[in-house]
Amino acid sequence: SQTIHQWPATLVQPVGSPLSLECTVEGTSNPNLYWYRQAAGRGLQLLFYSVGIGQISSEVPQNLSASRPQDRQFILSSKKLLLSDSGFYLCAWRGGSDEQYFGPGTRLTVT
Amino acid sequence: GQSLEQPSEVTAVEGAIVQINCTYQTSGFYGLSWYQQHDGGAPTFLSYNALDGLEETGRFSSFLSRSDSYGYLLLQELQMKDSASYFCAVGDTGGFKTIFGAGTRLFVKA
User: Fold this and answer.
1) Numbered residues of chain B with Cβ closer than 8 Å to any chain A Cβ
2) Which of A9, A50, A88, A96 is the most exposed place for a label (fewest CB within 10 A)?
């Protein structure tokens, strides 16, 4: 069966510091992968998606970037965090019927 | 533009039936999905409708009318553990993206 991992679970970072969140998927090959952000009490905002190694599509212009160095690895990064980057970051992969399966998420607080 | 509308909150009593509606407007359509998210947790997939009609999965059912750009999630025999946020989502043009609604917070009371 497929499993998706994210780490860390929680993170507190100062403004201006860098960020690296990692997501890995097991049990599937060449998955479509997604990064979402969710503000408290809000819906899911699509940040990036990837249909293959090195292929990244950005949905929201901001100070975040994403990379896919391996088939089942998806990384979200920032060189300098802003207060507005705080939120719940979720990685997901897409199943055969458009359904999405989410990782456990990383709760980021920028102070 | 692309948008999905669903009620922000719904309250129901244990054992009752509740319906959460979703209307959508997207440039393309690749099916309507529903997700459940408990406080502090990640969303989990509940159901998917690609064609018109009703899909049933245990206590949960989901309905789609593509001509009306409308769907709903029906929860029967409500339990306290059903208290959560429910999101509808639509696959967008090309099928690579999924657009999520803002979510409906369901409160189940004893």
Assistant:
1) 30-31, 33, 35, 41-45, 48, 50, 87, 89, 91, 95-103
2) A96
